[in-house]
Amino acid sequence: MNKLFLICLLIAFSSASFAKVIHKERSLYRNIIVEDNYNLRCLKFNVKTSKTNQSCLYINDPQKLVFNYTKLLFSSLLLLDKAPENILIIGLGGGTMSNTLHQLYPQARIENVEIDPAVIKVARQYFSFFENDKVTSKVQDGRIYVKRAAMKEQTFDWIILDAFNGDYIPEHLLTKEFLEETKSLLSTNGVLSANTFSVSDLYAHESATYKAVFGDFFNVRNRKNSNRIILTANNSLPSGEVIMGRVKKLALDLLPFGVDIAQISSNMISTKDEQDWLDNTKVLTDQFSPANLLNQ
Amino acid sequence: MGIELLGGRILAPFFGSSVHIWGSIITVFMLSLSFGYLIGGKLSTKNASLTRYGYIFLFAGITVLPIALWSGSIMEAIFISIEDSRYGSLTASMALFFIPTIILGMISPYSVRLLVTDKDKSGQVAGVLYFVSTLGSALGTIITSFYFVLFFEVKSIIFTFSILLMLFGVIAISFDKLSNTKNEHLSGAIHE
Predict the structure, then answer these.
(1) Which of A172, A174, A201, A202 to mutate against chain B (most B CBs within 10 Å)?
(2) Which of A285, B36, B40, B100 could form a disulfide bond with B109, CB atoms 3.0-4.6 angstroms apart?
(3) Domain coordinates of chain A in residue numbers?
(4) What is the homologous superfamily of the domain A68-294 according to CATH?
(5) DSSP state of A257
(6) What pLDDT was estimated at residue A50?
(7) Chain A residues contacting B, CB < 8 Å?
(8) Residue A287 with chain B: CB contacts under 8 Å
(9) CB neighbours of A182 closer than 8 A, spacing ≥ 6?
(10) pLDDT at residue number A93
(11) Measured between alpha carbons, how far is A25 from A152 in angstroms, rounded to an integer?
């Protein structure tokens, strides 16, 4: 009888632990969990549901990108007329974006800004986040980094905003003032891409705010999940023809990372052609930004 | 409390939303409230009157105004001169909240002085006052964070707080004036 019970217990246990937690810590801002599930290693914040996966990599093929949204971010390259020389990433996660971009453009300067020092540590330890004299990381609130960089008149060819996790949105990174400050950091032909939401009331407010600062932009999304990439540029958006030309040039370079740029380009929809929010939607400002209340 | 809560929102554009922002705000509020209690208590020992009480509210309302009017330029100056965002946020919350919160802190002990008539009941009066003010803080916090921020700009909420404070002050002063003149009439009648 006892034996039977033990066996049952063993079975229950082993099936529950397909995913093995290999690291767990409580940082200043959140709980951080690193989990291995067969060949997949994931960084999770707060709770143990797949919804809060922040960053994942294939242990035996770390070069290949796992997440849809990280792949979608590469649509930004279609707006750039040449390889980016200066890249700013706000919100590190596992550092996969930084690693991939460094492989793709070894000459580019990449600056990662992350508010939580524990996330940087975990990215280094478990996700082989890579730093050298070209790739750096800084512990700072994204808003402060942007303000200071603007004072120093720094510019970037590509800025990636990836500071939102599912549970809490830093409200000061969604306002018109913040986007204006960020825009001032873009080089003449610079591009900004933001990984954000496609559901909840916030969608319309966020869209209206981006439009107020940048004019029309591309929504890049995949029907399958709830992420969307807002893709916008300092200059006007390129035409379909120009984009198709760039798709051809980039396709082979991006293949090793599991990025099918042709397919991604077919998911880019300009708000000029399809605006799916009301014109009178209130713009988010430093004075009015109840982002977390709207995102319910 | 409503103002303290909005403090986080006011500082965020310049100093971010790291934990030390809340550290700065809460430190400054606790510090200035403690001074406020001390000064308010001291003040209540000399010629305590409803008029003076009203003036405290009036001044509190006036000193809250700069938060709505000039917080942007005040914080910008601090942001430029202090690189470390911990000390930047501490200095900024000092500049914005220190003086108004001292004056707001004076209200509690002064209220005790005005309401206590019987030494035996002083504990009870203080208890009721703590009850009312702390309950008010709780309500102010929840209404501000759940609803006000959804419907109004931060600036307008601060403005409203300021106007309400000044209004209370004016009401207290005029109420005192009115009842004084009434009393004079009454005492005059008795003399006749």
Answers:
(1) A172
(2) B40
(3) 68-294
(4) Vaccinia Virus protein VP39 (3.40.50.150)
(5) G
(6) 47
(7) 28-29, 115, 140-144, 147, 151, 170-172, 175, 177-178, 285-290, 293-294
(8) 153-155
(9) A146, A159, A161, A192
(10) 86
(11) 36
